Amino acid sequence: MPKRESSSYHPTVLLTGAGGSAAANCLDALRRSTAAYRVIGIDASPIFLHLSTADERYVTTRSDDSRYAEQLREIIEHTRSDVLHPQPDPDVLAIGAIRDDLDVGTYLPSQHALADASDKAAFAAVMAAKGVGVPESIEYATFDSVPERTAYLLERHERVWIRARTGAGARASLPVRSPDQASAWVKWWIDEKGLSASDFMAAEFLPGREFAYQSVWQNGELLAGQARERLQYLYGHLTPHGQTSTPAVARTVAEPGVDDLAIRAIRALDSSPCGAFCVDIKEAANGRRLVTEINAGRFFTTSNFFAAAGVNMPDMLVRCALGERPPRLGTSPLRPDLYWIRMVDMGYQLVPGEALHAWSDPNT
């Protein structure tokens, strides 16, 4: 629970995955707040934790370790943390399961929503059952089923997207045109990485535009939601499919169809949304927009994009966890055509579209 002691007290936020870029950008958003948060960073990597600019840093075990919960309790008590926010997906699931046993404010969606969102195959089934458009997809039960099940999808789609059922960053994904390609890809991950065929799923390949809708909810009510279009990807040119799900260039958009689809998907996942919900949407060859996944309980990697533009969702979430009621900004509060440009070791920059287009014109 919040431990405010005076008007000069600065709330303490405990941030997991602090050695990763998603948590680093969440921290950057919190630094942009007027609240002057004290931020504690924890991570299972004693190496990458050195990159965190948190006020204090602590090394922990992984969230799937039996000692993790006790370590969390000790750090929460020692640092007198007010709010705990997990960024990596495994941390979100683990902390969601023990939230009632922690003496700290969390603002996570319901556990059933976290569980459904964490498995892409289960998530697709939930969305389809609720009438939300998703790519046609199938699961693999055994390795022997890979060729036959892939062929089933290829009868109606030119290409099929093979991917791991869990994980971020387009993990273990590849577009294929034949059952043999699918089998070879899955077998490599089985032989080299110890996965099983049931860890994979396949879906129709979506070649169109890609949108990402980030939002924060309080007691079933939308506080703020904003869509962006991913235009270029970090090191996308090094992958077989040209993308990594982490954009090097993205821009704000104001497209009611995207907003409406994202909100319908969130409400289908959780009838009374609470916390952060981030929706991935992609266009099929015919232009139809389909939901590919929802990251529930944590923000997209580029959460500081909207914060820099004036809509600070990490700050809003922390304020909710502290028992406050932030202003309701609704959907698409930002003007369209704001660009977020980022590159490894070069930072990030918010650029208005008119400035970007002017530089792109050789006559200027």
SSE blueprint and pairings:
Layout: E1 12-16, H1 21-31, E2 38-43, E3 56-59, H2 68-79, E4 83-85, H3 89-98, H4 111-118, H5 120-129, E5 137-139, H6 145-154, E6 160-164, E7 174-176, H7 179-193, E8 200-204, E9 210-218, E10 221-233, E11 247-253, H8 256-269, E12 275-283, E13 289-296, H9 303-309, H10 313-321, E14 330-331, E15 338-343, E16 347-352, H11 353-360
Parallel strand pairs: 1-2, 1-4, 2-3, 10-14
Antiparallel strand pairs: 5-8, 6-7, 6-8, 9-10, 9-12, 10-11, 11-15, 12-13, 15-16
Helix pairs in contact: 1-9, 3-4, 6-7
Textual characterization of the structure:
It is a single chain. The chain is an alpha+beta fold. It folds into 3 domains: 12-106, Rossmann fold; 136-204, Dna Ligase, domain 1; 210-360, 2-Layer Sandwich (D-amino Acid Aminotransferase, Chain A, domain 1). Helix content is 31%, strand content 26%. It is built from 11 helices and 16 strands. The strands form 3 sheets. Strands 9, 10, 11, 12, 13, 14, 15 and 16 form an 8-stranded mixed β-sheet that branches. It has a 4-stranded parallel β-sheet with strand order 3-2-1-4, covered by helices on one side. Strand 1, helix 1 and strand 2 (38-43) form a beta-alpha-beta unit. Helix 1 runs parallel beside helix 9 (303-309). The longest helix is centred in the middle third of the chain and has 15 residues, at 179-193.
